[in-house]
Design goal:
Layout: H1 2-29, H2 36-59, H3 64-78, H4 80-93, H5 97-123
Helix pairs in contact: 1-2, 1-3, 2-3, 2-4, 3-4, 4-5
Amino acid sequence: MIKTILLVGGGSCLGGIARYLLSREIYKFFPSIFPTGTMIVNIIGCLLIGLICGAGMRYSFMNEEMRAFLAIGFCGGFTTFSSFANENYLLADSGNMTYSILYSALSLVLCMAAVYIGYKIFTMH
């Protein structure tokens, strides 16, 4: 268990660093008020988790430790949106389209509401 936790932490650390560096470089090429860097990182992270998990399923090479480091750690540190998209894919792929749609809608609405509440707690007069 400790080894898995350390693998997730190490992967997350590297993913977070990669996200920071890549976002910074993207903003140099596309300076804008639109969060281009974050959007591109989210798309890349979703592609990465799909490639990692898809290859792991097809070729059966991914043990729990590799999955913990790459999918949960690195991709999770790179972008949590990749985990969200992967979970939605797995729900839809297993025939649970209703849960996939519900998960998407609730995540969007409740997370936006949580950010709003967080701001309001510290900005209310």
